[in-house]
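hey can u check if this looks right to u? its 155 residues, i copy pasted from the old doc so theres a chance i mangled smth
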Amino acid sequence: MRKRVWRLVQIHWKRLLMLRGDRRAIARGIALGVSINFIPTIGLGPPLVYWIARMINGHRASALVSTMGVKAFVPLLYLLNYIVGELFLKQRLAPILSWNGVMDASSSLFIGGAINFTVAFIIIYYLVLQWIGRRRDHLFTRQHVRHDFVSKRNN
């Protein structure tokens, strides 16, 4: 079961990397789609991702697919937001039993989300940009060599 799921993830990841279009736009779309999940959008994630991808000239399909692929990890991302927000605000992790506790937790969540969004976007953008470049160069050289081999064979 685990191998099958991993294989499906690999297939869809390769399909994302092989989308047609500018590799920078695809990288912006994937980075936006993954990193938007750090921000609590309360169900407005996919339309928001589509609109932002359009505004920053990102690949809209890659943004939508990547944001939906990361949705399963949203609770872990929110926990990371809360921890980063608490560290940034230099507060201790306090129980949420009063209205002030709720306000402190929400401010930690949103500040941590903004920090994590920015850091994740930058890191994912450059990683995907490099990966797409290498993947496309590898496929181009393989097709080029194969094409030369076929043309020499026919002569």
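The radius of gyration is 20 Å.
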